[in-house]
Amino acid sequence: MLQHMEEAKTNELDEEFVEEVVNAVESIYSQLPLKYIGSSTMQGISFVKFLENVIERMNSSETLTLLSITSEYESIIQFVAQEAIKESIDRYEKSMSTLRNEEEKLQMHWKEFDKMHLKYKSEINKLFFEKIIGSPAQLSNFVKQLNGEISKSEKRFIEENSKELTTFNKKIAKKSWARHIKIKLDKNDLFRYKEESQEAWKLFESYCNELMIKSPEADEIIALFKNRYMAAVDYNKQLGKINAELTKTIQEEEDKKSQLIICMNEERLRSKIETLKKEREEYERNANNKILELQANIE
Description:
Layout lengths: L14 H17 L4 E2 L2 E2 L2 H16 L9 H29 L12 H22 L4 H51 L7 H18 L4 H83 L1
Helix pairs in contact: 2-3, 3-4, 3-5, 4-5, 5-6, 5-7, 6-7
């Protein structure tokens, strides 16, 4: 049985035997001194990797020089650091992903975003320093690498949050515009008085400030709609001037038309008077002829 111990399964062994073996192994491990690479303690993953590399190098047929323990130490230091960086970035991204809402959208106040970023980064740094090994210069270099990778990952989350904030806040602004300003534009009834203009914009801003997620993106959107509002006010002023000028022109044309009608009436009146004069003259002439005829008959 002892000759084939490596093939035996634990549940096939005597329980008392297994317990004694476990106790013996734990006793041995408890008395083993810590292993170091330089001044750093070697943890399980680094120690196993170190032994694997040494054995692989010793068994390699291409090994023409003596095994360099120093170079193996260096390779383990680099291996552990890169594994720690990968694990840290993976953990950071998983943590930041939990900030998305039920619609899988990342749209939150920047203060809260920065707060959670610093929290997760602090947790990662603590675990990272527990895993990496090497000299102070090497540790500093590994931290720079980690910060560089975190910055790249953070940038992607920043871009995502900014995009979603813009989309969300723009929807609010469009709804407020339609409710308080566009409805007047559609009716050609925009701001007959200055007070109406100011009140409409106050209502627009109040609605946005109540529902928008406060952020630079929100400020930029409000500024954009403020430009539209000012353009609408200017359009309204220009339209008012045009309408006033048109009304004045129409009135002038009406006055001219009325004057023309008056002139035409006067002309017609003079013509009628002239006609009446002619009719009267004709009547008098006929009457005189009739009188002369009667006088002639009398004679």
